[in-house]
Specification:
0% of the residues lie in helices and 47% in strands. The strands form four sheets. Strands 9-16-15-11-13 form a five-stranded mixed sheet, with no helix packed on it. It has a four-stranded antiparallel sheet with strand order 1-2-5-4, with no helix packed on it.
């Protein structure tokens, strides 16, 4: 009875896309049992043929801690157990700056792009106010993966004489980061000349 778990990494990434293959050498006709200890809710174990199976942890959304469990492969004949330790890294998600409020010029072409750095273990998406544009510095984007700098700016002029608020939400899994700010009010006024210049007298 021998278990080959060399393909199981010492640490799975938090955003896990890796499937690790495990094979079992066992006497013909003998059987074995896979017994995950407290892991069935976050590890997928599937048969992949005779005396073989795969292990794939689900994404770990915890920002606070890594997680660990043991998968025991047990010979049904001798009750000998081979433990496979599964460790998974914690999730990383941050947005910098996280709380700075930025005001854009009321004229869109004068609005300076605001840089935001996203650090993330996996994929993320963006929801935003319609008049806000988010780019990667060149192209408009609606999301990304991993670490990336994004740039916020106004897409259209503010036609109102009141400032208007905007929001940008960056979402990954169960986590959301929100950015807020304003576009300045449109300035429009009429200045009356008093007294009326003499050349305008009737």
């Amino acid at each position: 009875f021998r278990v080959n778990a060399e393909n199981v990494p010492s640490m799975f990434s938090a955003w896990n896309e890796k499937t690790a293959a495990v094979s079992v050498e066992i006497t013909d006709g003998a059987t074995f049992t896979i017994d995950p200890e407290n892991s069935s809710n976050w590890i997928d174990i599937k048969s992949s043929g005779k005396n073989a199976f795969t292990i794939k942890p689900q994404h770990n959304w915890s920002l606070d801690q890594t997680r660990q469990t043991v998968v025991n492969v047990i010979s049904d004949f001798t009750q000998e157990a081979y433990p496979i330790t599964i460790q998974q890294d914690k999730y990383v998600f941050s947005v910098t700056p996280s709380s700075q409020t930025v005001s854009f010029d009321e004229i869109a072409e004068n609005a300076q792009p605001h840089k935001v750095d996203v650090q993330c273990s996996g994929e993320w998406s963006i929801t935003k106010s319609d008049w806000i544009k988010v780019t990667d510095g060149i192209n408009e984007i609606s999301g990304g993966k991993g670490n990336k700098s994004i740039y916020l700016t106004a897409k259209t002029d503010n036609p109102s004489t009141k400032s208007r608020p905007y929001s940008v939400k960056i979402v990954t899994g169960e986590h959301t980061k929100s950015l807020t700010g304003l576009q300045n009010a449109y300035i429009w006024k009429v200045t009356y000349l008093n007294p009326i210049p003499s050349e305008l007298d009737p």
